[in-house]
Protein 1
Amino acid sequence: MYSESTPLSKVLGKREATKFRTARDITTVGDLLGYWPRRYQSPESNLAAATVGSYIVAVAEVKSATTRTMKARRGRMLQAVITDGTKDLEITFFSAHGHEGKLLPGTRALFAGKVSAFNNRLQLAHPGYSLLSDFDRGERRDLIPIYRAVGNLHTWTVTECVRMVLDLLDETPEAIPEQVLDRRDLMDRTSALRGIHTPTSMKEVTAARRRMSYEEAFVLQVALAQRRARQSQESTLARVPRPGGLLDAFDARLPFELTTGQRDVGETLTAEMARDVPMHRLLQGEVGSGKTVVALRAMLTAVDAGGQAALLAPTEVLAAQHHRSIGAMLGDLAEGGMLGGSEIGTRVTLLTGSMPTASRRKALLDIASGDAGIVVGTHALIQEHVSFQDLALVVVDEQHRFGVEQRDALRGKATHPPHVLVMTATPIPRTVAMTVFGDMETSTLSELPAGRAPITTHVVPEDRPGWLQRTWVRVAEEVAQGRQAYVVCPRIGDDDEPDADTEIFDADPSSGVGGDDGDDHGDDGGHDEPGEDEAPPPRPLASVHRVHADLVANPALAGLRVEILHGRLAAEEKDAVMRDFAAGDIDVLVSTTVIEVGVDVPNASVMVVMDADRFGVSQLHQLRGRVGRGGLPGLCLLVHPGVGEAPHERLDAVAATTDGFELSRIDLRQRREGDILGSSQHGVRSQLQFLHVLEDEELIEAAREDALEVVSEDADLSAHPRLAALVSARVDAEQAAYLERG
Ligand code: ADP
Ligand code: MG
């Protein structure tokens, strides 16, 4: 007998096992049982759906069958008519051999094949088929599971393999505690596996799926609850604000009023940092809602209390900009220890990977001595030789690029566990927050500061004559009024791969970006048809260099200062370009998405995104957030290649609303679940196999509740060995993914 971890090669034939491994990365019994039917079909289903070119899978009865000798070739040909009672279809085999004995009138079988036309009649040439007498194993089935083909294995071969595995499978150990199964009305694991692969009704399928999704949510929430429990056991130094310190001085010179949200969140952070349990808080906020000020005020509190604060940014451009803007906001408060600086001031230090050795050494010294109260940096901050005098607060900006492990690595640099504040780039739905940041408390900034001008967004199809040129004329008009423009491209040079910072969306709908029809769990949008896995080659994308050359040559932009920015420039060069742009010495900045997160140049009023269909919805929302910041109405133009492409719902959605929550929903709906957790682009097996983070809201909430209860009673899960094993497998997988990423 077998368990779920048994290698498939021990159960199936070598040919099948190899197929599963190479085509779908399915290597164990458990993997195969996780390969869910794409849909279920009743044996009564009809052939009505058959149209030329369509691929059908249908149950039908052989009505008549004839063989005849062919004139041109040797051998005999089999022609048959199959019917489902309402519609007939011809089937043809050019060699009757091996078929004529099986496809006898009255035989019922599951047929699959591509419909073609011959003499004006629809037919299936050489369909695959499996006789129902074999398939049913004598029992009558009301539902036939249809699997996506695995390489060239048809659905019924997959069915046979799955059944073989199910027959030999031992009772699978239960991970969900008995009382939870009862309370949530969930079936046991073994029944669920059978319910998914050999159901007798759709009701059974639904209940089985629910149970498997629940288990996934539950294991995840238990892992998070354990993490939370551990965190609440930790003790640290309370960082109590000092009246008359940096924070008060900063507030006194703030050129604007804080929004109510900023003030409220500020109070929460102050209160949590004043406790001797480390804070773990997620700050969500709409693009432009002013998260940076909130974070800076918390950092000043940390410094006032005698500690240091670190701000971790995802890119060098953003780290440099934070460093610059924090310096500017603090003014002489950032010149502590310097002649003419404020007495209560501190120092703000930048640390990135590409800094010249001398300034790097100086920065490391300031960090170690505590002279630098505020340290801004990239992941270079996480490296081993960086040591802090007394790290009190870690702020992680635009979290989606950092994993839990990176947060932990920075936490490890403190003598006492630091307080942690994580900020997301765009707001995210509640259940996603619960799933991805489930070990943290959440605060949300929902209002924008007063006086923000609206951003108008238009979609520009490039193939409409004159539209693209009109775009550049608009850019020139803005510049003529003293404003500036961004032009964002998905890659750097013509010969390059898409830029590493760009999350390229494949325009091909079959790659899974567009389609989620609700029941294709774990599906990559493919077909039932065997052997259809390759996507068409991507078309050339706009590059920074080419667009820059085009713009410089464009008479509409004559005399404008057009420059480029991308991740491959040297750090000083990047910095110089951003500085010049911020100072208004560059009119049009052609760049990759290095400017995506957080860059803040209030005078920029236009954003043009080339090949906008290749960017994710949230990414476009982020990009658009770079304009309309300085009280000037913003304009965002989303250029795409035009008709002949798939309809651009994504772009229309971005144009239709500026509500970040709504857009992140749309965005997430279009991704595979693995992408939500930021893992699948690293080639790691999707972290969530069955759970739909958006749709399964109720289930996730229930799982969270149950998980908290179980963990509060049995923190190390000693009474739940199977659950403990699943939880640690999950944590290990995450760690492995982290190591793989480097
Ligand atoms: P995000 O939340 O997207 O990170 P930022 O922190 O970059 O937004 O803030 C966007 C801009 O709004 C900055 O220029 C910042 O100085 C400004 N800002 C922040 N808070 C306020 C406020 N209460 N009133 C006016 N402007 C503000
Ligand atoms: Mg920001």
Protein 2
Amino acid sequence: MKFGHFDDEHREYVIETPKTPLPWINYLGSKEFFSLISNTCGGYTFYKDAKLLRLTRYRYNDVPMDINGKYFYIKDGDTVWNPGWKPTQTDLDEYECRHGIGYSKFKGVKNGVRADVLTFVPVNDNCEVSRLVVTNDSSAEKSISIFSYVEWCLWNADDDSRNFQRNFSTGEVEVKGSAIYHKTEYRERRNHYAVYSVNAPITAFDTARDSFLGLYHYAGDPEAVLNGKLTNSMASGWSPIAAHQLDVTLKPGESKSYVFVLGYIENPVEDKWESHNVINKKPAEALLAKYDTDAKVDAAFAELNDQWDKLLNIYTVDSSNDKVNRMVNIWNQYQCMVTFNMSRSASYYESGIGRGMGFRDSCQDLLGFVHLIPDRARERIIDIASTQFQDGRAYHQYQPLTKKGNSDIGSGFGDDPLWLIAGTSAYIRETGDTTILDEMVPFDNDESVAETLMEHLRRSFGYVDTHRGPHRLPLIGRADWNDCLNLNCHSTQPGESFQTFGPSEGPVAESVFIGGMFVKYGNEYADICDLKGLTDEAAKVRASVAEMTEILLDSGAGWDGEWFVRAYDSYGGKVGSKDCEEGQIYIEPQGFCVLAGVGKETGQAQKALDSVKAKLDTKYGVMILQPAYTVYHEELGEVSSYPPGYKENAGIFCHNNPWVSIAETVIGRGDRAFEVYKKTCPAYTEEISEIHRTEPYIYCQMVAGADAKFHGEGKNSWLTGTAAWTFVNISQYILGVYPTLKGLSVDPCVPADFGDFSVKRVYRGVEYDITVKQNGVQKGVKQLIVDGAQVEGTVIPYDASKKTVKVEVVMG
Ligand code: BGC
């Protein structure tokens, strides 16, 4: 069942009912000012850091669901309603929400009045613009009142939700004309404030929450709105809000437009005040003046759309499969940009006060956006590498505002160092910019111990190479990609963190998965060494990779007979083996070892993937492990803490489904690669939105596995490495347009009935116009013709002197 539809021409998902199975949200903002906005106008806004500089308040896990947002109320006689249905939940005659790329639109119609809202964050300003247009569609004159409402957060969202003994006494505001200023803590150490204004004279305002809502009311029945009259309250100590009242009379057919701006202002310390305790409003007034007419709003909206046009033109596909076109050209790349902006910080499942930027998460996210914003990817790589320790280990997380590694989780995750190679290699393959390798980059943000980025990569590889266990497999430390496989933790008391309890590294517990990564990124590192002319080092690295490959294929170490073992626990026992009672097979080593090419020649690759299909596949995707753990295993940690079928305990972890799909392309099985791709692909799961529940235009982190009561139900949408990996899968492996160090390679692996297709790809400043004749073949390039001339192999020689290159590929 669907609750809306895709409008590909406008790059929008059109939600047709406010009663979606879960709030379906969108993100506004692409630089420093961000908002989350749901299909019923819920959500919140922050500047740079969702924890430290939160502008508006949101209450997670509240009831009824998704209650706080930025709302407009319309009072028409005795009826009060909202264009986005919530929070009054007054039934609407018509409702529509269009989530677009960096903006959302709402349409609500009630009793002959129509309200259209367009909300977006302009490209270059720290504000959110909301244009509300009210139209009288009835045949009689209408006098209505419009009310706006936002609830301020007292900046630090963590403190805001806990420190009430202080917070109930600190709220401060100012009002000037239609502009309401939130200035809590400005008198002391803050030099920033927020403003909420409208480009028209107002009848009244409120800034004290109790006056607006009424003490025992809530946003669904605000007393002042029900009374039809705001009270001009001035917040003092208690919770500050901003609400405007506009009284409007509309003739039949008449429309009126209002532009609301929610902005963030920082003043230089010496220029904070206009007069004693009166804030300097000049920069706010200048900001508001930039959006005080419809024409200015139209221009800013056009600029936003232009920006996205440019980004989304870098990789486009035209195939006979609409769903693939839609995901590749619009939504998958959009989600990659959102994960770039947010990492894992702020979604409807990540509260914005918990996690910083993950080391491994950010490196993997980069794989999905490096082609869109290579300069910012470069900066990100340097930021990430700057948090690395001198011995090659890494902080697991760092703070976006300070860019420093944090001790919340600390270090010791065996896979982290190798992801830095993955990200850097992707950047160089995309841009050809090897100067990044010579950048001096600090360790642990200490400039006095800076070394080149190349040296950082060397230490990354070296760390894993020299930290091996009894089977010569890499030591796992606190965990590898699977944060919940905590083999050195041995926690028995509630409240102990699985990620920080116990030693950060043990001498026995090993990861086969990291072995697969070692082969994949060891090879990429060796290629980088070659590029730098370091042939001896490249040879040594390749020797280590070859040795690791043997270990992985050895039935006394990485191989279990029909699939790859997952790990060895701290007692030396196998994890993910037919010898185990529960958790006999895990997805990660099958996907990653095969995508690294391990077992391709020996037939073990095919065996491992066949086992995945036989043992882990479901109609909703490939589960992470089977059989699920039904009891808690102290020697395994968090993985066995979830009820069967959820999260890492046999859920369908969408992040590693593309690894299996990519692995299938490596052995040339296009039908199966695409089958795996489709199962978790939003454009396909849209049809079962009542089961899937999360947004049908983007990926979620996890879908409940076969053991779960609600098999097929999605959780944790938006901020997941799934976005990057599925884009890598579909764009580089299935459609096969893969950036190498030497140039673009075209080597598709598609289902037999996929048909001919074309890809436009801007790469290192050259536009490639690629057409593929498929000939019913799943994999194999018979002919590669570049600007009319036949070329050997699959790599298009890079020629910077050309602006456009025509490429014809004949499969066979
Ligand atoms: C984390 C990832 C991790 C994954 C699997 C996610 O929540 O952000 O870093 O790889 O879970 O455990």
